[in-house]
Design a protein that fits this description.
- There is one protein chain.
- The protein is α/β, with parallel strands linked by helices.
- The strands form three sheets. Strands 2-8-7-6-5-3-4 form a seven-stranded mixed beta sheet, with helices on both faces. Strands 9-12-11 form a three-stranded antiparallel beta sheet.
- The longest helix is centred in the C-terminal third of the chain and has 26 residues.
- Helix 4 runs parallel beside helix 10.
- The mean pLDDT is 96.
- The chain contains 13 helices and twelve strands.
- The structure holds 4'-deoxy-4'-aminopyridoxal-5'-phosphate and glutamic acid (GLU).
- 4'-deoxy-4'-aminopyridoxal-5'-phosphate (PMP) binds next to helix 5.
């Protein structure tokens, strides 16, 4: 019998899955550029710097030395201990050993695995488990939660509070269904941060509501921890003893060490349950990807321990600090566009809603952030990410990544200003 492909279907799970807008827009800007269009990309959430040389050298040496075979699924113990040591000494997350660390293929992958290990699809007649998601939030938390049977309860913050939720908002959102609170500081897409005092107040709420939500855990995504340049130092919520045993700390090499293409991320959680959780990630990963690329473990150790690398990280931090100032100065010249000052990561998230309802010089009607982004890409050749998929009030915003040169920032802001000036 002959079959035709028209009768073939995909799973509902992937058919209903929303593509990542950040990845999609970045790919689109790159494709346009490759086709010869003079596009200035501000969509990519990745440093424009190259990976520091000692890290590359360590990986090359490991490869030449023959470290090209399978290794234990979660990583060799040396590297897991090296990460544990970093988290104990730099982040004050006490009691971590190599057994409390899982290394996977990027922050996104260990986020996916962590959520798979925490959420179940509800049995019939049962309420689903909930992820408490302060918004605006990075676009991937929601779909990854929903793929695992969870539902998202957004806790909305806005520019007035530098996009930070309050302890009162958190308390009001907690129910017996609460499974996981996401914290992401410095924030993608906002570029703002929680202070130590803010995080202590949120931790207090998690601690005090143990009876209401006995299974509530915290996942703190600290992938931008090294890119901090305001008055607020980075602080790890996993260092607060009252809740430490229920805090998963996620980090990775992508942003701090300009290693987005290497695909390396890790999670850590102390205590006995921590070991059990990490083992479960190992079981899952053992059926999915096994270990990360074997010669990359040496690169991780090099990144975390070589003082020369630390100096390069500091150079990159200073560059982001100065670019943050530059882009804020340039945005201040643009009418009807405003946002809080970034103090971390490399994003600004301006409110552009005052531009909705206007028409571009070429006659395109701007109705919302996606139509604005689209028109800017088509007519001004600048790629900004429309806010909508970041949740909450994000539909009034666009995300601009300033992980690019001063020249590009200046040229992009010239185009943005001319575009806005041309709106009627
Ligand atoms: N968390 C946040 C907040 C991010 O912006 C990113 C960037 N994609 C990640 C996690 C994951 O990064 P990666 O998978 O490259 O480690
Ligand atoms: N985190 C980056 C961003 O938000 C990279 C793309 C992605 O993984 O979402 O742009």
């Amino acid at each position: 019998m002959q079959t035709t492909s028209s009768s073939l279907t995909l799973s509902d799970r992937v058919s209903n899955l929303k593509p990542s807008i950040t990845v999609a827009l970045n790919n689109r800007a790159k494709a346009l550029k490759a086709s010869g269009v003079d596009v200035l990309g501000f969509a990519a959430g990745e440093p424009d710097f190259d990976t520091p040389q000692p890290i590359k050298d360590a990986a090359i040496k490991a490869m030449l030395d023959g470290q090209t075979k399978y290794v234990p699924t979660l990583g060799d113990m040396n590297t897991r201990e090296c990460i544990a040591n970093k988290l104990v000494t730099e982040n004050n997350i006490l009691g971590l050993t190599g057994e409390h660390i899982a290394i996977g293929t990027g922050g996104k992958h260990v986020l996916y695995s962590s959520i798979q290990c925490l959420f179940d699809f509800p049995a019939e007649g049962q309420e689903p488990m909930e992820m408490l998601l302060p918004t605006p939030a990075w676009v991937s938390y929601r779909p990854i939660c929903e793929l695992s049977g969870g539902v998202v309860r957004e806790i909305n913050a806005g520019p007035d509070s530098d996009f930070r939720i309050t302890p009162e908002q958190l308390r009001a959102a907690i129910t017996p269904q609460s499974r996981l609170l996401i914290i992401n500081s410095p924030s993608n897409p906002c570029g703002t941060m929680y202070s130590e005092a803010d995080l202590r107040a949120l931790a207090q709420v998690v601690h005090e509501t143990r009876d209401i939500a006995p299974n509530l855990m915290v996942l703190t995504d600290e992938i931008y921890e090294k890119i901090v340049y305001g008055d607020t130092p980075h602080f790890s919520i996993g260092s607060i003893p009252e809740i430490a045993d229920r805090v998963i700390t996620l980090n990775g090499m992508s942003k701090a060490y300009a290693m987005t293409g290497w695909r390396i991320g890790y999670v850590a959680i102390p205590g006995e349950f921590g070991k059990k959780f990490i083992k479960a990630i190992g079981t899952l990963q053992g059926q999915m990807t096994t270990n990360i690329t074997s010669f990359n473990y040496a690169a991780i150790r090099e990144a975390l321990t070589n003082p020369e690398v630390a100096q390069t990280v500091e150079m990159m931090r200073n560059a982001f600090a100065s670019r943050a100032k530059l882009i804020m100065n340039r945005l201040a010249e643009i009418p009807n566009v405003s946002c809080p000052t970034p103090t971390g990561a490399f994003y600004v998230f301006p409110d552009v809603s005052k531009l909705f309802g206007k028409t571009t010089a070429k006659g395109t009607k701007i109705t919302d952030a996606p139509s604005l982004s689209e028109a800017m890409l088509d007519e001004a050749h600048i790629a900004f990410v429309p806010g909508n998929d970041f949740g909450g009030i994000s539909g009034n915003h666009v995300r601009i990544s300033f992980a690019c040169s001063d020249e590009q920032i200046n040229a992009g802001m010239d185009r943005f200003k001319a575009f806005v000036d041309g709106l009627v």
